[in-house]
Amino acid sequence: MRPFIPDQDIGYFETFLESIGIREGGILTDSFGRIKRSMSNTSASAVRSYDSWSLRSESESFNRMITDITHDIEALARDEEEEEEEEEDNYL
Fold first, then answer.
1. Residue 22's beta-bridge partner residues?
2. Which of 76, 18, 34 is nearest to 26 (CA)?
3. β-sheet bridge partners, residue 35
4. What is the Cα gyration radius of the chain?
């Protein structure tokens, strides 16, 4: 994040990071200065599972929406063809 912080504010930013347990180099530590793992394996697995479910759900929703739109367009095309046939019958 350093390139995005103005030079006059970097001191405040680094102090803030240290106050929440992040040392120089972006290493997360506990209150005793020990390096903390960012996430347990169980938590990481749960997050990955949720993310994949979310993506699958969004993908299914998108596919369903595209299918509905396609059916609507096909129905409009059929209606238009029927109207053209009726108009031709009226001219005869």
1. 28
2. 18
3. 29
4. 30
**Sign (positive/negative) of CA torsion 55, 53, 40, 18?**
positive
Domain ranges within the chain, ordered by starting residue: 1-38, 40-92
Residue tagged 């299918």 (tokens): 67
pTM exceeds 0.90: no
| Per-residue pLDDT reduced to its tens digit, 34-90 | 555 555 544 555 555 555 555 567 778 888 888 888 888 888 877 777 766 666 666
Spell out the long-range contacts of 38-46 with Cβ–Cβ below 8 A and sequence spacing 24 or more. Answer: none
Structure-token pair, residue 84:
């053209």
